[in-house]
Structure formats: C-alpha cells, structure tokens
Fold Muconolactone Delta-isomerase.
Amino acid sequence: MEFLVRQENRMPVMPVEEAARIKAAEREYAQQLRDRGILRRLWRVPGTRTAIGWYEADDATELHDVLSALPTFPWQTITVEALATHPQEQPLQRE
C-alpha cells in the first residue's frame, strides 16, 4: 500500500550535541527505509519544519511500526493518507 505522510517536526531546543546525534540517527534510519523500498520520496515544505513523504508498506500496521521507530517520533505530529490508484493512472486496456 502507498501512503502520503506529513510529518511536522516539533523537536524542542536541546543541547547542540544531542540534537546533532538525533538528526544523524534520523538520516541513517531514513536511508535504511529507502534501501528497504519503504520510503520512496521525501519533500520539505519550504519555510516550515514539515516534510511530506511517500511511503510504501504492506499495511497501516507496518507503516505505524516504521514511523514510530523514527528517532524524532516523540516530537512529530504525523498525518497519514492511504493512497489508491486513480483511473487516469491505470494502464489503458487494449481491446
């Protein structure tokens, strides 16, 4: 299943070293998700601390497990939309 995920990062001010450690762990985890084919694309919303991601997971439970393992999960406000293929995107059937 495909999901559109909006992640608003609300990480509080913290010591620079701790913030850097968490951000590095987040980048490493995101790369692991990319390597596994779960995180397909990631965009930043200009002027905000929000990212929009295109995820592919077996189901909503797997997506929940993936998102809740994010190092920044405790500070994220997350909204998820399941996606279905639009008829315009389906291949034309030849008769």
The two ends are 29 Å apart (CA to CA).
